[in-house]
Design goal:
2 copies of one chain form a homodimer.
Chain A (H helix, E strand, L loop, with lengths): L2 E5 L3 E7 L2 E2 L3 E3 L1 H9 L5 E9 L4 H9 L2 E9 L6 E6 L6 E7 L19 E4 L4 H10 L6 E5 L2 H6 L1 H8 L4 E5 H8 L4 H11 L3 E5 L5 E5 L2 E5 L13 H16 L4 H18 L6 H4 L3 H15 L7
Parallel strand pairs in A: 1-5, 1-9, 2-7, 5-6, 9-10, 10-11, 11-12
Antiparallel strand pairs in A: 2-3, 2-4, 7-8, 12-13, 13-14
Chain lengths: ~300, ~300
């Protein structure tokens, strides 16, 4: 069975949307990535850090999904990373209300020994030096390394970011971030410039407008499923990445054609994530529901024009 | 052979983009719709009005594309409708600099007698009473009536617009207009409300993000081809509609499955339209080029996940 290493935050979120407001609930990139990847029956380990305030029940929840949490360090005297945000009425933009790094500030990721030969590594959004240190620990060159990042690191750690970007195969990034990273408005030109930085594959996430997968001259466009209601977008991008990484780890096939399918799985899982607050929907998502929505995705996008 | 009636402006445009600036050039909704529909070998008539200042060469250009211009009234003492606009750097928004209605102010469309049994009618963006008067002239109920409109008519002729919307089969509208017409942010909910106003099919155009086709519970999402450069977006929406209408007229098949193909043809043709100023690209577009780009659209959107 393939192995998948996920590095990222395991955290508390507090979320306000036009539909309501939560207290501190389970959040974090590695959490969402892991829950999405759990649909693919691969050996998965989360590498992260939490404080002594983090409930054992949350760790158990991840373990119950067959996510190995031995790489989640518990700093007893520390506090868990906490993020709080408020979404605007259009649900496409948000204000960050609170960011408390807490134990994340001194996070030194340690990949469990039995995962240092993992075929797929998913570097969730973290300081680029932390992402790089995970790669340094791998004893075999992974078949595929996927990196997620955000504008914050472009602003304050650009050269570290560029160094780790050189070492990866797939970057997932949103449209505004792709524009910021390259100074190009056209996403086609931006993707080409990112290829030149290292990654052979560039995934540009466009939220409700779907996602683009670039590999030099090849492009694939997976639309997002049009939804009646987006309840809470938190974690949708990480869920997408987790579905992508999990599908690649399961199939072991890193061809462009198979990555198209990985993008579709990612989009499908992300379409569930936004239906409830935080991880709620992803905690209780059956394979049957996923299968049904994949069929919807086929209906949504497939057509039958006969061409020679 | 099927017949297609197009009503809309035949006009002068003057366009400014970050790439340059034109003098008065050929424009107008019926012009773009007609040029797109000319790729489908159907008997096509344009119904419009121009002034004595309109060059015969422009009418000849349309005739050469097998568009019957006998329904384009020439008001010798009048002037042709003129629109001028300036696109912003993102090419997604624009300012209207000049709108001179001229002969369009008193436009009384007359459908040529031999086109009053046309199978497909494409009502380009015009005053809803003008659109309705075209329907009144049809002697046989058309197989499919498609209507395009814009926010301007929602602001100043809403009840006339709602009356003509009741009588049509397909509406093409952009995302912001769909939201304005229904007061709903979610496009899924907006489409449902528009269904209730009459049209069985709702096409929501999202520019660079593609187009959605709704038919009650069914949705199809055709992405736009990611382009290196959008040179001039003028006429892209009309080109989309012309491709859609032309394909339906050619195939005579108004099923949802076939409408998916019509959306793909519309998107394909629109992707060419934006490559040069005004109608320039559409005047010199070969069927071979269209065929090649359709293949690109298949590569862009089709995937092979095996599902039971």
């Amino acid at each position: 069975m393939s192995k998948l290493v996920i590095v990222g935050t395991v955290a508390f979120d507090a979320i306000e949307t036009p539909f309501g407001k939560t207290n501190k609930i389970l959040g974090g990139a590695a959490t969402f990535i892991g829950l999405a990847a759990s649909h693919f029956n691969v050996d998965t380990a989360a590498v992260s850090v939490v404080g002594g305030d983090f409930p054992q029940a949350y760790l158990d929840l991840l373990s119950d999904k067959n996510i190995d949490v031995s790489g989640v360090e518990i700093v007893k005297e520390g506090k868990t990373f906490f993020w709080s945000g408020r979404y605007h009425n259009d649900m496409n933009s948000r204000d960050t209300l609170v960011t408390e790094l807490n134990t994340l500030a001194d996070f030194n990721p340690v990949v469990p020994v039995n995962y240092r030969d993992a075929e797929v590594v998913m570097l969730g959004n973290l300081h680029p030096l932390v992402q790089a240190s995970v790669l340094d620990q791998m004893e075999l060159k992974p078949k595929l390394v996927i990196l997620d990042t955000m504008n914050f690191w472009m602003d304050c750690a650009l050269s570290d970011l560029l160094n780790v970007i050189k070492r990866i195969d797939v970057i997932t990034i949103n449209d505004e971030e792709a524009r910021q990273l390259t100074g190009e408005y056209s996403l086609v030109v931006a993707a080409r410039k990112i290829h030149e930085m290292g990654p052979k594959y560039v995934v540009i996430k466009k939220g409700e407008h779907g996602a683009l997968l670039f590999n030099n001259d090849y492009v694939f466009y997976a639309p997002a499923l049009p939804l009646e209601e987006v309840f809470d977008p938190t974690g949708a991008g990480d869920t997408f990445a987790g579905g992508f990484a999990g599908y690649i780890a399961k199939t072991g096939d890193t061809s462009f054609e198979n990555m198209k399918n990985a993008v579709i799985y990612g989009s499908t899982l992300a379409s569930f994530c936004v239906e409830k607050f935080g991880t709620e929907r992803m905690q209780n998502l059956s394979d049957k529901e996923v299968h049904k929505r994949l069929l919807q995705f086929k209906q949504l996008t497939q057509f039958e024009i006969e061409l020679a």
